[in-house]
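Quick note —
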Amino acid sequence: MIAEEAQRGAGQVTSMGTAIEARELVRDFGKVRAVDHVSFTVEAREIFGFLGPNGAGKTTTIRMLTTLLEPTSGSVLIGGFDARHQPYQARRQIGLVPEESNVYTELSAWDNLMFSARLYRVPGRERDRRAQELLDLFDLKEKRDVKAQDFSKGMRRRLAIAMALIHRPAILFLDEPTSGLDVRSARTIKEIVRGLSAEGTTVFLTTHQIEEANQRCDRVAIISRGKIAAIDTPERLKRTAESVQAVEIAFDRGGPQMDGILRRLPGVTDVARLGDKWRLYTPDPPALLPLLFEFAQQRGLKLLTLNTLGPSLEDVFLRLTGQKVGELAESGDGEPSGRGPRGRGGMHNG
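Predicted structure written out below.
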């Protein structure tokens, strides 16, 4: 219900329209170019993933999309509104949940929602009804009058998303929504995001967790060194890296020297140690299998695990950026630190 009313309240992003359009975005910080002519569109109702390593330009791009930072050149359209020349109208389309919590811990859940409602200029007669709906949706009804300082991290995250939805935005920006959460809280957030998307909200998801993007997103953009390296569905991106195949193997024993020995096997292009397993990258997994059986037999090793793996979204990311994405939050993109007008990463509609 909240998401359905979001589109009516925003009034611009239709079910078949374009929610976000970035045109040749450039952002310089002195002599450093953090974002270099970035262009892409996000369609209404999409869950759009935005991936990139630290320093890639991801955070800078998000800040420009959400009107927190003006581009050096280029433009952003949010629900058809120019973010630079029509900032108020653009901000009315947006709900923003930054990675750093924007929940006021000294306030109760209800007071946080009321604060956000006033900030977004929700009419007084609507505030109570919307806040109550959101408390029900996010399973915070019994915590209505409890100060957020007594909330778990997962509860604060749910409250932060509720605060971002209080004005019924058509587009929800989520920055690392499940980072640092326990499994149950992360699952709850993912289910809520899926429900919002199904009801019509456009979701722009920034994440370091490639598997989350693979499972949740309709399309994924990968940014590297300030440029868009690829945009497509997760499955199509994986097909572009079909040569990145692997064999995963585990022996009953082994040591650090095993990496170097396995790397010298014919057809192996790279080796990665993953816990008690080794992942051997090769363009021809079937040809490698008999060599591994022979390798184990010669050294008296017992094979515990042997699997052939097709390319993953992580492999695509690694190929395009030369890095792996961890689950830690990024520290920034080289731009000066700064927060929104609320002081906690939020936006103001003035």
